[in-house]
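note to self — DONT lose this again. spent like an hour looking for the file last time. sequence + predicted structure for the chain T wanted, 160 res
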Amino acid sequence: MQPYGGFWWRVLAYFIDAIILQIGSSIIGGFMGAGIGASMAMMRSGQESIVSTAMLMAILLTLVLQWLYFALMESSAMQATVGKLAIGLVVTDLNGNRISFGRATGRYFAKILSGVILLIGFIMVAFTERKQGLHDMIAGTLVWKTRDPRLVRNDESIFV
């Protein structure tokens, strides 16, 4: 039986993912910032709202890309983000199967709730029997410490 992915393993995986996402956001921000700067240079008085709209669009684009990164990677055949792959973690449903894009999306947005309540939803990983955070409980997922998702499937006795 494979062990569950514990708190510190998941924190380390998230740091790796955060670095990757920051690099991507910086590249997007650089291009959009150059565009905003060029627009400001040619702007007439009274057109300042265009800059605010462009900045809001950059923020929204970054948020959408982060959601897609987590949801697409965790619902893929790899069942993990790049950070989780590097550490050796996989995300499954409660039966050890690959999760759907919809479930991965729910898990991603449930992380907002885990964070809003003073990070208690994340800290729960350290204290629950199956190392589940609030977002895992909401989405019905488990995180396993393994590089091969096949090792956690098809053995119904471990989920009883």
